[in-house]
Amino acid sequence: MSDSEENMFQLFTYEHKARRWELLVRIFYSIAIAIVLMVYGFIAGIIMIIQWFVILILGRRSEGLSDFIRGYLEYHVHVLSYTSWMTDTRPGIMPTQVKILEKTAPEQ
Questions:
Q1: Domain-embedded: residue 12
Q2: Do the domain assignments include residue 8?
Q3: Residue-wise pLDDT tens digits, 3-22
Q4: Residue 78 is assigned to a structural domain of this protein
Q5: Fewest CB within 10 A of the end CB: N or C in the chain?
């Protein structure tokens, strides 16, 4: 297993065990996450509009704008497993750098 694969794990997996106390904590924790997502999403929406104009005028994407939008999307996916009751593992409230990877099935 390579060093980069060692820190990888699947976000949406079934966990049989669940803590009851975490359900109460999750309510308040999810509110804080929702506020961060709302603000981050609002800014990302404005940046998407700016990116649209950049593509229209220059015929290329701005890397900085794309990085910001990607950060928002990665954070959103990162917190979904917690806010959807899939896991008791709490993500950070503030966005952290994560990578969302897609594994494709081999062609047959």
A1: no
A2: no
A3: 555 676 666 666 667 677 87
A4: yes
A5: C
Q: How far apart (Å, rounded) are the C-alpha atoms in residues 87 and 13?
A: 8
Stretch 90-107: mean pLDDT? 79
What token pair was written down for 46? Answer: 């404005």
User: What CA–CA distance (Å, rounded) separates 53 from 61?
Assistant: 9
**Residue 75's domain spans which residues?**
20-99
Q: What is the token pair recorded at 43?
A: 């800014």
DSSP secondary structure string for all residues of the chain: --HHHHT---SS---S---HHHHHHHHHHHHHHHHHHHHHHHHHHHHHHHHHHHHHHHSS--HHHHHHHHHHHHHHHHHHHHHTTS-S-PPPSS--------PPPPP-
> How many domains in the chain?
1
